[in-house]
């Protein structure tokens, strides 16, 4: 390692040597390569993303720039962006980024706060819409450029302009009537949207625009009510996402024919417990999954979800924290063995509930009971005599298993069971001696190793 460091810093290191060392596993070696004046330009480009400060400190850069005026043009985009973000980046890097052919570089440049007015103006004329959009999002922008970009051919650029806090009123009203719905929706999000603009947008035919508007609470009462009863489910659901809604809207939404509207109702933070319980038993999976997202469900709602037809919903309930005992009891007889298996290893399961699962027809469930930390000795005794060898192997490992049952398992016909017993440190001398004489070599070795 020290040899590689020395080679990377040697004044006469060749380009071939430095190229090879640029892939060295030690970051210190690669950093020295990035600073070496003999490092080829292409190699510097590959190192710039990880070592921008070292590349900029390379004493050979001035000569390289003279030989190759478009030096950074051969650097990968991520390397140039890293150089742009380096502290104290020199102006020539910014100028080179302005001419770089990769849109990502010019987009990153357009987001810099320290650009000169001339550079900002040049980027506002860029052929790439991503760059013009980045300019439109700048905190500070001359009004002339705001107006220019508000008339841009690309709707993403105009949408970015629509969100600017310094948007002139006449430009705002032009964007209210923009040809693209996403731009009009952007206008509809503005906190300072004038009343006449709200009313104009309320007559829009685009559901996304209306849905954006429907989330507002500063609309005229008649406009809000109209949006809340709109023919489009998207708009009705959006109206339920407003900060506050009248109580009668909640009652109306519960019987809405569209499940997305009822799902929006289920997500409201002020939904009462009785409503959540009813929605948890809704006929639509969409609504039930919306209820499942909540962490404040009443017991009856959780119980309803524990009886949902979707196995993954019931599985989610079975693995959730702090579920009531009534829900645990309901899940004991779940039709899906995966749900019962997850249930079996819960730390809050009572002994009576573990006893029920220990008699489950599925061996995976019984094995999970054998692994569960709270399984009592009397339940383990039954599992130690289970017809499935995998269940007996799990029982053989449990610390709550009675010594008498360990003796039974030491003579089990399955060598995996005997191997599990042999690995225990709490065996009586007679049981360990029996296992040291086991016909299976692995069992004998395990018994001898643990008992040594």
TrEMBL record:
Protein name: Leucine rich repeat variant protein
Organism lineage string: Bacteria, Thermotogati, Deinococcota, Deinococci, Deinococcales
Region (Disordered): 432-452
Composition-biased stretches (Basic and acidic residues): 433-452
Organism superkingdom: Bacteria
């Amino acid at each position: 390692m020290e040899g590689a460091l020395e080679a990377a810093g040697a004044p006469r290191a060749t380009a071939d040597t430095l190229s090879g060392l640029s892939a060295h596993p030690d970051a210190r070696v690669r950093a020295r390569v990035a600073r070496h004046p003999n490092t080829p330009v292409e190699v510097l480009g590959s190192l710039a993303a990880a070592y921008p400060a070292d590349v900029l400190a390379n004493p050979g850069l001035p000569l390289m720039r003279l030989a190759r005026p478009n030096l950074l043009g051969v650097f990968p985009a991520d390397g140039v962006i890293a150089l742009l973000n380096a502290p104290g980046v020199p102006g020539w890097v910014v100028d080179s980024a302005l001419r770089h052919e990769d849109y990502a570089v010019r987009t990153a440049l357009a987001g810099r706060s320290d650009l000169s007015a001339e550079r900002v103006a040049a980027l506002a004329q860029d052929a790439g819409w991503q760059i013009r959009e980045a300019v439109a999002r700048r905190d500070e922008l001359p009004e002339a450029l705001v107006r220019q970009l508000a008339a841009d051919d690309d709707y993403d650029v105009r949408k970015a302009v629509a969100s600017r806090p310094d948007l002139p009123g006449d430009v705002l009203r032009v964007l209210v009537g923009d040809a693209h719905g996403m731009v009009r929706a952007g206008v509809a999000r503005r906190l300072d949207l004038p009343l006449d603009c709200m009313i104009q947008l309320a007559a829009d035919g685009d559901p996304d625009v209306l849905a954006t508007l429907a989330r507002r609470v500063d609309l005229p009462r008649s406009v809000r009510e109209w949006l809340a009863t709109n023919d489009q489910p998207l708009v009705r659901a959006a109206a339920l996402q407003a900060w506050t809604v009248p109580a009668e809207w909640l009652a109306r939404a519960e019987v809405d024919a569209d499940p997305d509207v009822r799902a929006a109702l289920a997500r409201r933070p002020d939904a009462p417990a009785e409503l959540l319980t009813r929605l948890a038993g809704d006929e639509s999976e969409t609504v039930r999954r919306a209820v499942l997202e909540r962490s404040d469900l009443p017991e009856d709602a959780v119980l309803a979800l524990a009886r949902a037809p979707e196995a993954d919903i019931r599985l989610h309930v079975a693995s959730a924290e702090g579920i009531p005992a009534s829900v645990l009891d309901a899940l004991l007889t779940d039709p899906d063995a995966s749900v019962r298996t997850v249930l079996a290893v819960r730390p809050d399961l009572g002994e009576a509930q573990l006893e029920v699962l220990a008699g489950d027809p599925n061996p995976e469930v019984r094995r999970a009971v054998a692994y569960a930390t709270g399984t009592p000795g009397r339940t383990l005794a039954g599992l130690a005599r289970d017809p499935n060898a995998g269940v007996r192997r799990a029982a053989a490992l449990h610390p709550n298993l009675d010594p008498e049952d360990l003796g039974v398992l030491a003579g089990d016909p399955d060598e995996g069971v005997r191997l599990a017993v042999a690995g225990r440190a709490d065996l009586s001398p007679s049981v360990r001696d029996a296992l040291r004489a086991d016909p299976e070599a692995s069992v004998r070795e395990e018994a001898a190793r643990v008992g040594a």
